[in-house]
Amino acid sequence: MGICMSSNNDESEQKKRSQMIDRKLEEDSRRLRRECKILLLGTSKGLETVLPFDTDVQSGSGESGKSTIVKQMKIIHQNGYSVDELALYRLTIYKNLLDCAKALIGAMRQVQIEPESEQNREYSHFLMEYQIDPDPHTPLDSKVGDAITSLWKDPSIETVMEHQSEFYLMDSAP
User: Cα angle at 12 between 9 and 19, to 5 degrees?
Assistant: First the structure.
């Protein structure tokens, strides 16, 4: 007799399940209304390392500020960076610093200009051979900072910078 009829328990379970699905759909709808999509044009050089969170950002050309915007959004909207993320950025900064110094030394050699002081010639060789430790918690050798500071103050740098159109130096270089 009761085979064709559903029980009250089945109906209440189905009703609860339906209400749960409706709530989930409503939550998703509210979340999507708050979501903002941004189109950043240019190449994606380095952007993949800056996007540790789920985002729908289209990317573009290097050194146009895209990663800076994404980093600022993370700081503002996601409570900044963890200690480990900061350590990884420190490693990137060390690498950029050394890459700029090596580019400058390479440009000096390209235009056949030597540093005026013997110490800066030695610093040039030291910097060209120096390798950054891949451990993000290892501090940069203080000699690297001394070498770059001294080399940047060398009078020959002014002459090298007159040839700036002949070599590449990052926008963030001093």
Answer: 155
To which residue do tokens 């000699």 refer? Answer: 143
At residue 53, φ and ψ (nearest 5 deg) are -115, 165
Q: pLDDT digits over 119-144, tens only?
A: 999 999 999 999 988 888 888 899 99
Burial letters for 4-38: b for 16+ Cβ neighbours within 10 Å, e otherwise?
eeeeeeeeeeeeeeeeeeeeeeeeeeeeeeeeeee
Phi, psi of 65 (to 5 degrees): 100, 5
Q: Token pair for residue 96?
A: 């950029």
Q: Going by C-beta distance under 8 Å and a sequence separation of 6 or more, which residues neighbour residue 62?
A: 42, 43, 45, 46
Element (H, E) at 40: strand 39-44
- Quick check: pTM over 0.70? no
